[in-house]
Amino acid sequence: ENRPRHVHVVVTGRGAPEALLALADTVTEMRKVKHAFDLGVPAQRGIEH
């Protein structure tokens, strides 16, 4: 609430509390549309982890 105007707070993850969303300048939600993992392709280093 008291941060300077030139300071941006970036938070990643799910389930952010409404209080944090209210303070944020930018909020983004991501959702999976299609993923190779669903077709049996194992997780790949550098992509999923």
TrEMBL record:
InterPro entries xref list: CblAdoTrfase_CobA, P-loop_NTPase
Keyword terms: Transferase
Transmembrane intervals: none
Keyword Zinc in annotation: no
Transferase is among the record's keywords: yes
Domain of life: Bacteria
Any one Gene Ontology molecular-function term assigned to this protein's record: corrinoid adenosyltransferase activity
Name under which the protein is recorded: Cob(I)yrinic acid a,c-diamide adenosyltransferase
Organism, scientific name: Thermus tengchongensis
